[in-house]
Amino acid sequence: MPHLLQHTQLDKTSWDACIEASGQRQVYALSWYLDVVSPGWQAVVEEESGSYVAVMPLPVRHKYGIAYLQQPLFCQQLGIYTLHELTPEMAAEMLAVVRNNFSYSASYAFCTANTNVLQRTEPDAATTAFLFTHYLPLQESYEQLWKGYTRDRKYNLNKARREKTSITQGRDIEPLVRLFRQNIAHKIYGGVAAEAYPMLRRLYTAAVENGVGELLYTVSEDGGITAGGFFLYYGGHITYIFNAADSNGRRHNGRTLILDEVIRRNAGTQQVLDFESPMIESIAGFYQSFGSRPVPFYEWRYNRLPLPIRIIKQVRQQVLLRFLKR
């Protein structure tokens, strides 16, 4: 039977072996990744003969003495990872353990590989919602993948190739952090969390140490870095985890050059480029222009806190929203 384990009770060697051998394996679920984005994470675990055979990582946070679930930064999906076929019955058992131990889920996103089973397990529209990312399978040749680009994307890519812009592999995350802080952060509704930049630095270091990270930059004719992209390679997926560009990089289609370079280099492999698309129409449209397709995944939210606490929380949220809209 599945049961809850505190962080200190987890066997991370057995954990990572389970993730690696699971049918849903993702970089987000590896223990070192979770240690960076959700320190103190807990998990629902099912064991056989002392080894983990099914796991569900839980990004636990605490506020006012209440433990709750909150999807971490730089971690679009989590969910259930299992060595056996994931059945609706198994999923229901795992979710029941979560509900029995946590009265509140601010947000919890399941991996795309869980979607079909969860449609038969968690039909309550009041607690679940569909989100979408964008996948581009890279099995075909680059020539065939190029044909899937939209006319505008081909035009912008050809235009970018005529510019005197080069692509280089990076070894330092700081230029990418700087590009984001100076050109993008102020556009984000509600601002950027204070812990985001230190977390990104730790994540880049850990990804390089574990052999799954790649950093690409575009460099202008005068040697300035104009755009950057941070990618993670694991489990047959190339995840576009973070990116930024300045005005020059946007004007000269720096991110288009970077994404096309990743597609060209990995064409003809069994990998999938995961754009990690947010639910923003303009950004999703940009990713679709490379021939990608939307892929659904579930987000799980529920609130079974005592009524007085729910009321206080709702009032605080309303006040915060009014403040942010000023």
UniProtKB/TrEMBL annotation:
Pfam families linked to this entry: Acetyltransf_6
Matches recorded under Gene3D superfamilies: 3.40.630.30
Entry coiled-coil feature ranges: none
UniProt keyword annotations, A-Z: Transferase
Alphabetized InterPro entries for the sequence: Acyl_CoA_acyltransferase (IPR016181), BioF2-like_GNAT_dom (IPR038740)
SUPFAM superfamilies referenced in this protein's UniProt entry, alphabetically: Acyl-CoA N-acyltransferases (Nat)
BioF2-like acetyltransferase domain segment(s): 157-267
Entry annotated with the keyword Chaperone: no
GO molecular function: transferase activity
Name listed for the protein in its UniProt record: Acetyltransferase (GNAT) domain-containing protein
Taxonomic classification: Bacteria, Pseudomonadati, Bacteroidota, Cytophagia, Cytophagales
